Amino acid sequence: xxxxxxxxxxxxxxxxxxxxxxETMPMKRGKRAQLTLMLGFVQAHQDDTLxxxxxxxxxxxxxxxxxxxDERAEAWYTxxxxxxxxxxxxxxxxxxxxxxxxxxxALDRESRGDDGQRKRTEVLLVAVYHTLGLIYxxxxxxxxEPFAKAVDAARTSGNATQEGxxxxxxxxxxxxxxxxxxxxETLAPLVGACDTIPFRYFAQMxxxxxxxxxxxxxxxxxxxxxxxRDSVDLDEIRTAPLSYETAVSEDSQxxxxxxxxxxxFQRNGQLDSARVYVERTLDRRSELHQGxxxxxNIAAGIYHGLGDDARAYGYMQQLVSAKDSLFEAQRxxxxxxxERRYRTANEVALREASLRYRVxxxxxxxxxxxxxxxxxxxxxxxxxRRRDEELNETLALLDSYRESHDSLTSRLDAxxxxxxxxxxxxxxxxxxVRDIAATCYLYGDGxxxxxxxxxxxxxxxxxxxxxxxxxLYSDRAVTRLRTEFRGWPERNYDFAxxxxxxxxxxxxxxxxxxxxxxxxxxxxxxxxxxxESQSADRDLLLAYFA
Length: 546
Hints:
Distance between the termini: 70 Å
Largest sheet: 2 strands, antiparallel
Structural class: mainly alpha
Radius of gyration: 34 Å
Number of helices: 25
Number of strands: 2
Strand order of the largest sheet: 1-2
Helix content: over 70%
């Protein structure tokens, strides 16, 4: 039986039992290394990290010593996929890079070799560069180079389908860099061939991608954008399968059409339509990543254009929070990548220095063996010392960066604590005002103390504080009432603020010097006016008067 990567990913338990049941003694060393590599791949998909790393390292030691370039390319590709499954991103990038290097070497040597093996290596090279581009794109790095190499490799191998997918992602990388004209130029061959693409959902994504690029560039009029949008086949978007052969669309919620529509309607000034599409997209978003964080910015711009600055501010806060989350994740990966690069550079430099000194000693050993050996050892130690000092300086810079990050985090925590303290203080003041009002209602005909308490509860300054705090802790509901229902008496707004703050009718009649029947009558009147209005916040405001 043959255990391949597909079986290992879909049924890792069965694949592991099959591999462990094989008799390895009659096998040659190459077959045993292949079995060990696949076993490590299966263990990685079982989340058995320690066993997976041991198996993968043992197999890669063999390929590093005895494998051909073709075998090393395939082995490094499998190793990289396993590392990605284990969550070791930097090791996965290193594996894919090594796989690409050995695949290119193999293709250079196989110009007159086996056509079948050459075809497999060409397909592998396309997959490696395409996967590298996807990793760079997801992490926010510059993904233009790997996707461009994937397009060239697919064109060389004659794989038009894979060339189309890589070209689509290359145009996305140009768009991420802000080069919209280059993105449109790169996508143009796919746009012209949309009617012949077998993967129908992908064909519609190409059309929508082209619309978004022209929207960013601003070279098409709104009328042309809307006409091009109308030509998109909605039936294929809603019903076409999201996969074709080995290709699978990541747009599982089918939101790409809604995103493009929101952008086009926003540019055309049709903000109500744009709002519908962007809200639908945000509601169906299942995860946060680098590609969809810009939706909050689009939504904020739409609501700002509609005059709803409160909602726009809320979306901008979500945008900042999302970018901070992504930045923290990317910064951790960048710090790890920086450490790996410095350590790798140091190891390479040490190996090169060691090789140079060994050659030098071998050439001059016949003349001055002792003198050359002493000089070489001293120079080698100085080289090591300098490299060690450089590495220490780099690590010190990294420690300083981490200390700055910890200081910023502590400042944010202190700011949150101060905000919580202010909130508790304001809530305590509201509670005190309510107690004064209730006491005045129960003992309003009492002595001078009751009169003084009534004076405090009914003072304009106290009432203004209550109105402001009610507005603050009800998501600016009083401000919305003033905006939506202009021309009301000021007393009505104060009355609504006390209702929203949770004051009882008895407490309100004391605060505003009204009768109890007057309180119930005014509350019904305001509730009826809100219910009969066409306000966008009608349901939210009615909830306070329920």
